Amino acid sequence: MLPTFANSQIDKVSNRLKAKIQTEVSSEPHLVWIYFTDKGNDLQKFYSNPESVVSEKSLKRRSKVLAKNKAIDFLDLPVNEDYIDQLLSAGFIFKHRSKWFNAVSGFANTNQINEISVLPFVKKIDIVEKFSTRKDDVELIELELKPELIKSSEPNRIHSLNYGPSFTQINQINVPAVHDLGYTGQGITICLMDAGFSNLSHEAFSSMNIIAMWDFVENDPDVSGHSHGTGTLSTIGGFKEGQLIGPAFSSDYILARTENDPGTETPLEEDNWIAALEWADSIGVDVTSTSLGYLTFDSPYTSYTWEDMDGNTARITIASDLAAGKGIVVVNSAGNSGLNTSHNTLNAPADGDSVFTIGAVTSSGTRSLFSSVGPTVDGRTKPDLMAMGSSVYMASAYSTTDYSYDNGTSFSCPLAAGVCALILEVKPDLVPMEVLEILRLTASQSNNPDNLNGWGIVNALDAINILITRGDEKNNPEKFYLLSNYPNPFNPNTTVVFSVPKSEDVKITLHDILGREIKILFNGFVNEGIQELELNGSELASGVYLIRMTSEFNQKSHKIILIK
User: Fold this and answer.
1) To 10 degrees, the CA torsion angle through 409, 415, 418, 419?
2) b (16+ CB within 10 A) / e for 224-245
């Protein structure tokens, strides 16, 4: 007998959930979203104390896009706990809460859904969509690491760092030259959402600053799970000279496990991903990098299809756009479904209009055949940008000193996300769409974007140079300089020269090549014009160092070399 609903209930249960219920026995638990009508009373206490909702760093990031008196809104307020307690009393098995959607996810059978649907504070009940993975995903085929492949593509060392075999992938997007300028992602917080991060004891992670970790599948702090995240994390932020250096190796990292295992048909559940995104936002994330999201699916899983890739249907796409509205740069892999001449092959949330969708190219710059294509159903060009996704060099998940090669937009995504961190380090007040505009403007086919390669291959140096030379009429940064020190190289003394456009407070600090502050060289008020200070390196070891100068609105860095 098929389940029936009272007239007052039927509008609360989605058509997809009703169809699913009608094909299964009533005792079968369903993974559902339960949406609430409101968040209860006494909400003013949150508005008057925003720090009780999100961190100070999150509020600072939001200030780029939101007025001070609107730093938090209704979406940021917590879900009403009394409502959750009443669901639990009805037999609901709680999984995640989403303040942005004012909803909770969890398990309920048909009888429990009937009971819950009559509660006055329940607005809607729907299924949690699932994205089923495929065992033949190209990004999951690990290539055999052959000795003859382990060689640097930089025969005449001209850069300050030795990138080893990772030079090809990072030089294609012009990152080494940016590192030479002293920009390595310092001060930027990046969140990776993946299937797990095994082998965090690998040498490539030894200097990485991981500030938070959580497993949204098992609900505990152990994010080991799977090897996939090991590859993506090392690609964006690994650091081992002579082997592997990621574009943003000085950034702070948040790790979230959101999927069981991308090597099986176990699905990625959108509620895990949304919960992780909201968590990262509350901590104060600047950039997210996600190499998950799948379009194809296997029975009996329900999922979105290519026709839903319109930027407004998939919940994880909606959540991504909400995050961008709060100042977060959201970067996602385009997918590995290749070309279909009749429709797009994108993954959600790569269809989002505020999502940086990243496709893959080979080392020669041609599009990788597996890289997904647009346009979105509503006609927007996708992907946005490209980076190397074929034979990308990364840390192994099975040894603390080994490395491997792998394929997929999973790995072009973190390369591009790392460049976003470099851009924000140079110009922290940029909003997400300004970052995307600069990347598009400087990419390899900026004048003729298409649905195969978007605006083309990222060019980090050109993007940074635009920020450095474009200037800011209000603050006049073209006169805010950290000039070349003399002599350079030096031993043990050198003179640091800098210039400010107006009298202001300036801080000048010395850092190691990883971006870690060693000491403060100057911190105080200076007059307009060119200034000098002396640096004595007698207590320092030989090597490459960075000098960083900051004021209220501007920041500059410069590389210096001490040779004893």
Assistant:
1) -110
2) bbbbbbbbbbbbbbbbbeebbb
Query: Can you tell me the mean pLDDT for 200-216?
Result: 96
Q: Give the side-chain half-sphere CA count within 13 A for 170.
A: 35
CA–CA dist 158, 385 (Å, integer): 27
Q: Give the mean pLDDT of 129-137.
A: 53
The string of DSSP letters for 148-180 reads GG---S-SS--SSS--GGGHHHHHTTT-HHHHH
Residue 504: helix, strand or coil by DSSP?
Answer: strand
Secondary structure of the chain: what % helix, strand, coil (to 5)?
25, 25, 45
Kindly tell me the sign of the dihedral angle through the C-alpha atoms of 230, 235, 236, 241.
positive
Residue 403 is which amino acid?
Answer: Y
Contact at 8 Å (CB) between 106 and 284? no
Q: Are strands 329-333 and 252-257 parallel, antiparallel or unpaired?
A: unpaired
Residue 298 burial class via C-beta count within 10 angstroms: exposed 0-12, middle 13-18, buried 19 and up? exposed
Q: Contact 55/284 with Cβ under 8 angstroms?
A: yes
Residue 245's pLDDT band (cuts 50, 70, 90): very high
CB atoms under 10 Å from CB of 84, counted, come to: 17
Residue 16 has φ and ψ, to the nearest 5°, of: -65, -40
Q: Tell me if the domain spanning 477-562 has CATH number 3.40.630.30.
A: no
Tokens 């799970």 — which residue? 225
What are the tens digits of pLDDT across the range 488-543? 677 888 888 787 888 889 999 999 877 889 999 999 998 887 788 899 999 998 88
Token pair in block for residue 493: 């003394």
Peptide bond into 501 cis (omega under 30): no
Domain 168-468 has CATH 3.40.50.2300: no
Each domain of the chain, given as residue ranges in start order, spans 7-131, 168-468, 477-562
Q: Is the pTM of this model over 0.85?
A: no
Using the predicted structure, report yes or no on whether residue 149 has a pLDDT greater than 80. Answer: no
Question: What is the rounded CA–CA span in Å between residue 332 and residue 320?
Answer: 10
Question: How many CB atoms neighbour CB 124 within 10 A?
Answer: 17
The span from the CA of 201 to the CA of 198, in Å, is 9
Read off the pLDDT of residues 356-405 as tens digits, 9 standing for 90 and up: 999 999 999 999 999 999 999 899 999 999 999 999 999 999 999 999 99
Task: Calculate mean pLDDT across residues 219-242.
Answer: 92
Q: Give the pLDDT score at 542.
A: 81
User: Cis peptide before 300, with omega less than 30 degrees from 0?
Assistant: yes
Please give the structure tokens belonging to residue 316.
Answer: 């994880």
* Cβ 451 vs Cβ 385: under 8 Å: no
- Token code pair at residue 151: 């060689």
Range 7-131: architecture per CATH: 2-Layer Sandwich (3.30)
Instruction: Indicate the length of the chain as a whole number.
Output: 564
54-104 pLDDT, tens digit per residue, is 999 999 999 888 887 888 989 999 999 999 999 999 999 999 999 999 999
